Amino acid sequence: MLKLEGVTVRFGGLTALRDVSFSLAEGEILGLVGPNGAGKTTLFNTISGLIQPQGRILLKGVDVNRLPLHKRARAGIGRTFQIPQPMHHLTVRENLVVAQAFGAGRHDPGRIDEILSFMELARQAERNAATELALQELKRLEIAKALAIEPKLLLLDEVLAGLESQAKRQFMLKLKELHSHFGLTIVIVEHDIETIMNLCTRAVVLNFGQLIANGTPEEVFRDPAVIESYTGAAHA
Ligand SMILES: Nc1ncnc2c1ncn2[C@@H]1O[C@H](COP(=O)(O)OP(=O)(O)OP(=O)(O)O)[C@@H](O)[C@H]1O
Question: How far is the CA of 123 from the centre of ligand 1 (A)?
Answer without folding.
Answer: 37
